[in-house]
Every structure is written in C-alpha cells, then in structure tokens.
Amino acid sequence: MMFSSFPGLQEASASHEVPLTVTLLFAAILVGLILCLALEEKLHAKKSLIVGLFAVVSLLLGTVLLPLPFGPYDIGGHLIDIPIYIPAIDWGVIAIILGASLFVDVTSRSGLFTWIAIKLTKVSGGDPLRLLWFYGLMTVAFSAVLNNVTAMIIVGSLSAVSLGKLGRSDKLLGFLLIEGLLTNIGGLLTLISSVPNIIVGTAAGISFMDFFFKASPFVAVATVVTLLLGAKLFGVERLSTDEERTEAARLVRSFDENDGIESRSFFWFGAVMMVLFIVAIATASVMPYVSDLGMGFVALTFALVMLVRYKHEVDVFYRTIDWDLLGFFAGLFVVISVMEHAEVLALIGRGLVPMIDLGPTLGTGAVLISAAGFSAVTDNIPLAAMLSKIIADIPVVGGGIRTASDPLWWAVIFGANLGGNLTPIGSASTLVAVTIIHKHGLKLSFVGFVKKALPFAVVQIVLAVAYVLWVLPMFG
Hints:
This protein is an all-alpha fold. Helix content is 70%, strand content 1%.
C-alpha cells in the first residue's frame, strides 16, 4: 500500500512542483541504495541495515526538501493520525511473507519434504539421468510452494548425499548448478513463489489462479529445456550395464525416508495442511469475506494453526523468521514512497516511455530483457517494486486502465525472476547453490558461474520473450 493509495496524499503531491535538482538528488540516493545492495557482501552489512539507513536519510531529506504529506490520513472515511512511514509499507506483502515462511518452517518439521525427496530418490533406482530429472522437477515444485532458498537447501543437500553414496560426486557441480537455475524457473509458477511475483502481481491485480494458468506453460517448457541442456552440457547419462543398475538400486535402498518423521500423525497433518494451504491461497481472491482480508490473512492463519503443534516452543520458530528480509521490505517501501514524492519514479517512467513506445513487440521485449539484466547485478526486489509502480502510472495508449493481462506486467515478472540465473548474485537461491558447491570442495568462481550459466539463461530469456509476446496474448 503505497502513498498514492490515499486520496489526500495524491492531492498533496499533485499540488506542488518538485525542482529538477531535488529530483536528481533523490535519484542519486536511489542509485546509491542499488549499488550498496549489489555490494552487500563486500560491505559486510545485511540488506535490512542498508535499506534502513537509506530510508532514514530519505525521510529526513524529504521532510526538508519535499512536500511530504504528514497526515492525518483518510482511511475508510476516517481521519487517522499515524507516522508517515506506516502507510508507506505494503503490509499485505509483509503478511504474506511472514505467514508463508512460518507455515513452511513448521510444516518442514513434520518431515514431509524430506520424505518426498527420498521417495523420489528410491524411485529413480540411482540412475544419474533419472535422478537429474526427478531432482529438477522436485526443485521446481518445491520452489513453487516453499521459498527458493529453502528448496535449494533441501534438494541441494540431498543431491550431495545421494551422488556421494552412488559414487557419482563428479556430477555434483552440474546437479547443483542446474538445481539453482531451476529454483528461479519454479519461482515463476505461482503468485507466491517469489517476492517479485507478489509485488508485481498485487500491483497488477493478478489473481492466484490467473497467475498459475498463464505462467505454468512457460515453466513446463523452460524446465524441460533446462534439464535437456543440462544433461548434455554436464554429461549426465543413463547407467549402461545391468551391473551398474543393480549396484545403484542397492545403494539407494539404504536411504530411509522415515528418518526425519518425529510423529506419524503430525506428518499426515502437515501433508493435509499443505494441500489446504495451497487451495486456500488459490481461492482467496474469490472466497466471501476472506477476499476482503487478503492472502496475507490466509498465510498468517495457517501459520498460527501449525504453530499450535509447538505451542510451548513457538519462540524457536520466531527466531528462525527472516527478520532481515522483513526489515528490508519495510525500509524499501519507505524509500520508494519518498522517491515517488520526489518524482524520481516519474523521471524513470519518462525514460521508459521511449522504450515502451517502440511498440507492443519491441517495447515489451526490451522491458523484459532490461529487467533481466538489472536483476543479474542487483536485487530483483527493489527493481520489481519500482517497475510495478512506474508501469502502473504510465498512461495506456488509447486511454483506460492497465489490465492484469497487460504484457508489460509479465515482462517485469519474467525478467526479474530469470535475470537471477545470469550471475551467482542475481538471486539468493543461486548464491546458496554456489555456497553448497564450495562447501563440497568444488571450484566455481564468479566468472566460472557466468560461463556455465549463460547458455541456460540466454535460452530461458529468449523463450520468455517469445512467450510473453506471442503466447500470453492468447489467454486474453
């Protein structure tokens, strides 16, 4: 919920002109924020601290140089006097991330995800090529219902153990790299699979089911192409002799899928709740009353239900919440709100207009490729937040409003997710993949990652451009 959500705020910003020098000053602050986020590891500072400092500076300078509206705010017909940075934060996004993270964390304690992973390993019979396909499909599925980092940790760790026991550790680098790339493809499958999806989907008014139906054909094709290309480039092949197949099957039988299950009843409860959670999120936009409360309410409700199982130790789960991510979001929304009033977003929007004016084909393709390029070198979350706000404010040719099926929304969604496959810092899950690679003594530099990942990323982005331009319009 940005400042422009309140009528009083729109009037306040519309009645004042911001000098160009002031706009450029705040633009420089925004560039500084992006650079600091890109250099996060070298600065040895967490995202929340970086963006928090920029939020404080932006608010202070905005108070001096801008006509920031300090309330009272008209909310539901009531004037409420609250600090200016409170309505700047999109609390719906915060609630979805907090609730979904807690729910998944508690559900993982049931042993459900480990059970699925080991079952698939046994079904593969230890064949390397079948393992690659099973683990790849599992990575996509886990990335769609968990967060990408959790999916990468679960599948990546199991890959290392499985290949080690099968005597195939020479294939571990290829497996981990492919799985890292697939997390970002799986992150395109549903509205809640990745944070850029949530941000852009919320701004565009895309429902959960609409998102799934429009994104799933691309995800299916991109997954198959990535696995075929990965098997070829990394030399992953089927076992050729009966002796090899027999020995591999014997080795995988030693895996015990029940090791992580502390309670059979909780295991089944977790499985049922996971299905209900997906159904509830999928139908939240059409359910009576719940649609008014939003997906954040659904996510928090399911998290609370699961926490009842550990009611005497819920503080353990509170400590595992990614407070850095939540703090990062809160500060980011504040910064972007100030940038909106400083007319920085309008300035960027005017810069995007010539690109969009290239036409529905070239313009949309240029936006997707640009979003992918920027996502490769900096955090895709602020990029998605800025572009969603900018695109919402760009006038539609011929008048009217920009609908949820407008290809520009999807260009940002696809670009922001797939750009993470170009570099190891492009997404958190690829960074985790590289961390696991180094943990097992495998060498892979920044440049080495780019060289190995570039063929995959280029193919995926080309497929995405073609899909957004020529396939998505068929959905209407």
